[in-house]
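User: quick one - fold this with flavin mononucleotide bound?
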Amino acid sequence: MSVMDHEHPATLAKTNMNAPSHDYTARARLFGGNRMKLGVMAFNCSHGSTITTVPEAWQLNWPDSKEIAQAVDRSGMEALLPVGRWKGYGGPSNFNNRTFESFTWASAIGAVTTYCTVLATVHVPLVHPLMAAKMAATIDHVTNGRFAMNVVCGWFKNEFDMFGAHMRPHDDRYKYATEWLDFVRRAWTAEEEFDFRSESFEAASVWSQPKPLQKPHPPIMNAGGSPAAQEFTTRYCDMNFVILKDRTYLEGAKAQIDHLKKLAAAHGRETRIWIHVYVVCRATEKEARDYLNYYVHEKGDWEAAGNLLQIFGLHNQTLDAKTLEGHKAHFIAGHGGYPLVGTAEQIVDELGKLADIGVDGCLISWVRYKEELAQWNEEVLPLMVQAGLRAPFPPVERPRAAAGSAPPEETRVAAGI
Ligand SMILES: Cc1cc2nc3c(=O)[nH]c(=O)nc-3n(C[C@H](O)[C@H](O)[C@H](O)COP(=O)(O)O)c2cc1C
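Assistant: Sure. Structure tokens for the protein plus flavin mononucleotide:
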């Protein structure tokens, strides 16, 4: 029996919305809790997710990265996700040409935060599974069980060439990923030494201690969208990070999500759907649209975006060439993410619609992370609480009243941070 068979949805941690939970593990944060979960992504790379030449775009440095992560942590959002990236795309911005490696980034971010789940994005073909298992277990200890792993098969051939790595034919990538993940899970769960033999691996007397703190292991996300990716993610992973193909007609996006959830159910599992959203929040819709127009249409780096889409077009089966071309402005605005552009009220309204169609979590990028995150925390998060999309943070607890006494006033519990 494969180790993957050991995990059953019934064993997954559940937490209830509005019930204060002091379980800060990634499993508790990501598998239960708020109706719309949130995270911040891609600030381990220069320009984050924005393919633009505006001078205020994210330049990448550690002091600000730490500050952003700690502000996300204090806000009660669920996740911090680095992108797996090794090389830029050329053009005047050379978008993403400076990148912090994702496991070492996650370990350092984990050490300076206390609440949020910290993910690492791992390129399955570029990292040996035992190495990934060890790094992940280490980070799970550093973070006291707040680690989760995002596995990707990759598509950017220029990066593979840097490693001298072979890019497999499309569907073989997921066959390899299945073996790779099986190896990782064995290393995370087997108490005794084991041999691992499969088509791609030949490993003897494998030993990996300590195990991750989370049992049976940290949550696993997969970012991919082809039929092969859907099969892999719904069979073996806990979360699917997807690009919504349809932006104007939410029924289309709902059908995409329903399909994934049904596929998981057919495998006796549950999947949670996460998407990338790019946010421009301003006092008026016009101001938000004007700024979007400025950084995408006036100052966008269409050359870098063209390079990205040309290579992505060759190596993905998530989006066909026509859809990709139609999404070009979305790639410049936020790496193909879903737009949240308008006032705080409009954004919360849209988040409600996304929750209604089955989106479990949104990973945010901005042009200016520090400033726009502060605004998000101040203006958007309280409205999400009012809309019932999220519980207040820190959680509000009512201490049990002594018999016959008046109910005590609500007490804010500082949630240990
Ligand atoms: C939402 C999303 C996020 C992704 N993030 C990364 C990433 O950080 N690094 C990377 O190399 N590929 C990333 N990918 C691309 C995948 O690795 C994969 O190569 C791509 O989806 C094509 O595979 P597919 O045709 O099976 O979907 C991402 C894909 C999606 C859908």
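One thing worth noting: The longest strand covers residues 272-281.
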